[in-house]
Structure to design on (378 residues):
């Protein structure tokens, strides 16, 4: 699992690096190309201005065919010719004639002008703008950059989806196999329990043994439901938490107290009681482990907030470091010497996928404890 996560992380890094390199190369090449085209259009406009000047100075016997052909040959670059006072004399390749004067002014402001001396201290001003092709080419690298970024996002999303699908297969396969493997020893334990009841009918430990066997049956049932969508039913959440407290209280050190805090009336929510108890038990077991054998307490709070029913598990354990808070639900993450780091990941799956709720670390402080919060819609 960890190798798969590391591989996904490396692929994401390489995708981002590749996107940055492609974007940088594209911007550089496009910039060079745009600069060359700008210079080419400037040269064309210099020649166009000279052709205009040639026509202005020509006499009646001068052959103007070549100059006029060159002037008429400009079909892409917007051009406006004005006099020294800024009055528009002629324009080309401009569709909207109503704003020609303002357009010429903006060209002059940008410095895209060529002066034509017509004698007597007077002159004409040739104002021009970038061609449509050049403007599109200027914008092209940014469109290309956007496409590259979309590709990277889609690729990362596909990788994450693939990872999630792979994890789901692992969860389902592991859970089904665990339930299958538990079936045989549970059946044997049930048979041995019946034999013990016949031979030692008054033994006080046999009822406790029966409870543990039934507990194993419920655990096997829970594992068998992973991968399917169990039907939630209206369940008093007070009873669910009471069951967890009764179970944990007998199997937890007397140094740790577990208490529930509920409203006086039943709080009914649609849940699968078996799976939801598993979630709360997991949080309680983690809280007990966080106390590391020291005295402490676990408080289970059942809260009603508008259309939300919340369960908060508050402990006085060692707390979670800030850098680890965002990783506690990640499969494989654990701070324990033993364990696979799957408990909280499974708890999150049960809450969010099966019950459409939320589970998160509400607050945690090192040395003071942690509060996990589960929110369910009524």
């Amino acid at each position: 699992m960890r190798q798969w996560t590391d591989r996904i992380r490396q692929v994401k890094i390489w995708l981002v690096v590749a996107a940055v390199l492609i974007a940088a190369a594209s911007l550089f090449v496009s910039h060079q190309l745009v600069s060359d085209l700008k210079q080419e259009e400037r040269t064309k406009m210099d020649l166009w201005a000279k052709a205009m000047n040639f026509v202005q100075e020509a006499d009646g016997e001068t052959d103007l065919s070549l100059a006029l052909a060159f002037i008429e040959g400009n079909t892409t670059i917007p051009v406006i010719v004005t006099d020294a006072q800024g009055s528009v004399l002629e324009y080309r390749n401009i569709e909207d004639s109503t704003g020609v004067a303002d357009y010429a002014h903006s060209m002059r402001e940008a410095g895209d002008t060529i002066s034509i001396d017509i004698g007597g201290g007077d002159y004409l001003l040739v104002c021009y703008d970038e061609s449509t092709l050049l403007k599109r080419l200027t914008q092209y690298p940014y469109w290309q950059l956007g496409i590259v970024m979309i590709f990277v996002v889609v690729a990362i999303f596909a990788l994450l989806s693939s990872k999630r699908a792979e994890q789901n297969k692992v969860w389902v396969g592991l859970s089904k196999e665990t339930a299958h493997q538990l079936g045989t020893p549970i059946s044997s334990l049930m048979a041995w329990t019946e034999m013990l009841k016949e031979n030692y009918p008054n033994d006080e430990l046999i009822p406790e043994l029966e409870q543990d066997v039934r507990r194993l049956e419920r655990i096997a049932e829970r594992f068998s439901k992973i991968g399917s969508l169990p039907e939630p039913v209206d369940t008093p959440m007070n009873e669910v938490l009471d069951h967890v407290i009764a179970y944990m209280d007998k199997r937890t050190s007397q140094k740790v107290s577990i208490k529930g805090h509920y409203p006086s009336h039943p709080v009914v929510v649609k849940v699968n009681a078996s799976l939801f108890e598993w979630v709360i038990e997991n949080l309680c077991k983690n809280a007990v482990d966080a106390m590391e054998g020291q005295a402490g307490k676990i408080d289970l709070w059942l809260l009603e907030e508008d259309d939300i029913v919340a369960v908060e598990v508050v402990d006085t354990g060692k707390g979670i470091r800030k850098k680890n808070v965002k990783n506690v639900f990640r499969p494989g993450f654990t701070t324990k010497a033993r364990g696979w780091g799957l408990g909280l990941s499974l708890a999150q799956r049960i809450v969010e996928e099966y019950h459409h709720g939320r589970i998160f670390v509400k607050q945690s402080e090192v040395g003071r404890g942690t509060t996990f919060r589960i929110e369910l819609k009524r």
User: Anything to note?
Assistant: The longest strand covers residues 296-305. Residues 132-199 form the longest helix (68 residues). The chain has a mean pLDDT of 83.
